[in-house]
Structure formats: structure tokens, C-alpha cells
Amino acid sequence: MHAAAEPSERYKVTEVLREASSAGLSVCRTWAFSDGGDRALQISPGVYDERVFQGLDFAISEAKKYGVRLILSFVNNYNDFGGKAQYAQWARSAGAQINGEDDFYTNYIIKDYYKNHIMKVVTRLNTITGLAYKDDSTIMAWELMNEPRNQADYSGNTVNGWVQEMASFVKSLDKKHLLEIGMEGFYGDSMPEKKQVNPGFQVGTDFISSHLVKEIDFATIHAYTDQWLSGQSDDAQAAFMQTWMTSHWQDSRAILKKPLVFAEFGKSSKDPGFNQNVRDTFMSLVYRNVYNFAKAGGTMGGSLVWQLVAEGMDDYDDGYSIVLAQNPSTAGLISGQSHAMTTLANFVNSPNLVNTPEDLFSRGDGPIYPVGVLTTVRATQSGSGTATVISVYRIYVPSVIMPHKRINEKRNGNQLAPPPVQEDLLNEHISHAEFRAVFTTLAHLVVAQNSQQAAAPANLAVNTSAARIQDFT
């Protein structure tokens, strides 16, 4: 929205959405706020700049064009683009007794300002599409606040009361769209034993109690280990991330019984010793967990890296910015994860399957039938020079999705399920997510086409000089 407020810069919004869509990304989270200051959407309480609002109209219309759904946030916890501090200043200027910016959650004047903004955005009629925002399916969800925090009450109770009030208000205006809070995932007083999972400090929110509010449709977490665990080793940060993600996934599944989205994570290029490999390794850890959690129970809904920008948007670079065209290895990771999650979702939602093929492997259901071989070829350095390593995997599909006319009992027999696919000892040939994407793509092709040879997408050939699938059903 901020960039699109200037018509001459709208091409940057188009570029980001086009690149994101090409990489397989399907959801983008962005701001529906800019309170006071430069290019303000809300100049003062209830007063809006139509030019900036039309920038948001354009962003939504472009997202629709490229098949990207949006999560729109109503306000910022921080001072960037105004935030709750600007609301507090507006109320103070109107004569209200304001003790600090955290009065945002309790002062009735500020809450009225905020509710008015929500109503203005939700009921906005898009000047390009002609649709009211509340009727536009391009918008996937509303977000109450980017990373709410409250230093005046570390228990989480104050923010929780605010969430209950504001969530009910949003749903009174719009029952069609999903709603989330925008929380980072810090635990509070409702389950004190969980506080040990926090990174050594509190922020005044309670992940459990606030996400149990019935109007909240899914939970979110964020994580910035380079900030939260500043000065600690990459291994220590990775260990924290593993615990952070696992704990929230388990709680979302067992306690909240709601989907979980990892809505912000990244590695800053401003960190000492940063290089692209460090960021890619960190992102691979996150992506592996997201995929495995999604496969295991369906509670994990996905992840959104912070943040994708277009070339020429240096003013928005906070250290975490990624220009896909300038970062091919990171773009490959993002694309690989996007396609892996998409194919997993297709399997989970397929009327022909009650479980993913890998679940069937682990349970030993059968019979199953071999449908292809994935062959990867890689040149590797050894003490005696360069050697070629060839890894071959037989790919199986459960009989429940094999077309009956193709079943050949004499050839295949009633085989028992093989053990999980094993990698070669070097463990470098192809990532788990990429292999799964190849597997699931092939399985769908077998069902849909039943006869044709399938070629692996080019972006799956990571660390290989060639990657191919041979169909021999």
C-alpha cells in the first residue's frame, strides 16, 4: 500500500506479487494501516487520504490478478507507520489522560479510534475491483495487530481482554473472512509452566488464552532468534527454534484445536557474520519443521518469511528483505517449500486418499505398487579426485489410488510396504522437501494420466547435475 500510494511506484507491487506467484507462494501478509507521518492512510482519527487508500485498492487487485490471497493487518504495535503510539498521541491531543502507549488496550477513546479504522477498512469499496473488502475473497484474513505487546501488564490478561472485545467487533462487521491476532507466540499466566519456552523474557501476551477466544480462527507465531538470542551461536538459535515451533504446534493441536501459521521469521543481513548460506540453513530448518508438522497432523497451516520486496525498495530494507531475483538459492528454497506444501495439501484433500503415502508407508498398509524411479546424479570431490555418485530410489504409490485396469498382480504381487526411503550416505543429493515434491507430483500424474512419463521440475534438481523420473507403471 505504502509504495502503491504513488502511481509511479506501483510496478514494484506488481513485481513482488508476480515473483511470489511464480515461486508458488499463495498468501501475502501486508499492512492496512499507515497512521500519521509520510504517506499516511489515516491522517488523523477518522480522516483518510484517498490517494493512499487507492494504493491499497491496487495492491488487493494485483494480488487477485496473480492468485495471491492477503492477510491485512489493522495496526502496528511499533512506531513504524504510526502504530499504537500514534493513537495514544491522538487521544492525548484530544484532551484524554494518557499514561503511555499501552493505554491503547484500555482507553475507551483510543479503542473507539481503532474500531472506526477497522470499520473503515472492512467496509471499504475497492475503486478498481468494485468489491467491498468484506466481500472480496482475495482477502484471506484480517489481523488485529502486528505483534501486540504490553509492558504495563506482563500477565497477558489486558491484551487478552482487548482481543476478546476487538475480535467480536470485527466479526460483527464481517463473518466471511478469517481472523487472527498477529501474536508472536509468547506464553503468559494461563499456563505458567509454558513460560520456560519463552526466550528469557515476557511481552505481555498469552498465546494460549488469547487464541482460545472463539472468534479467532487460527493461531500465529513469529520468531527472530537473531534478536531474541542475540550473541548466541547458530546451534543455540536452531535448538531454540526447534523447541519454539514444536511447543506451539503441539499446543495448537491439543489445546487450541486451531490451525497454526508461522507468520514471520527471517535472518538479518545486518547480523555479524551473516552470509546467504546461514540464512538458507536457517530457513531450511523452519521449512522442514513446517512440512513435517503439516504432514503429521494438519494443524500447521504454513509459513510466511519476512519479507519479500522488489528491486529498488531499499528504503524498506530492515535487514530481512529478500529480492527473489537477486537471491537464487533462497528463491529456490522458497519455491521448493511452496510446491512441497501444495502437493501435500493436494494429497490430504484428495477424495481418493485418507492418508498421505508416507503415512501409509509407516503403517504398512498395502498392497502398494512401484510407479517410478527418481535418479539423481552428482559429481562430488573426494581425496582421490572427482567421483560421480548416482542415487536411485524406487517410488511407490498405495493401491488405493492406482487405476484398477493398470494393476498387474503377476508383475507386482501383494507386496509389503517397503521401509521409508533411505538416502545415500553423503546425504546431500536432494532435500526432503524436494524429494517429497517429486514423489507427490509423480503420484498425481499416475492417477491423472495413467500412462505418461513425467519429468521432474527443474527447480527440484538441487545439488544435482541431473534429476529425472522414469515412469514404468
From TrEMBL:
Signal peptide: none annotated. It catalyses: Random hydrolysis of (1->4)-beta-D-mannosidic linkages in mannans, galactomannans and glucomannans. One of its GO terms (cellular component) is extracellular region. InterPro entries: GH (IPR017853), Glyco_hydro_5 (IPR001547), MAN-like (IPR045053). Its EC number is 3.2.1.78. Residues 9-307 form the Glycoside hydrolase family domain. This is mannan endo-1,4-beta-mannosidase.
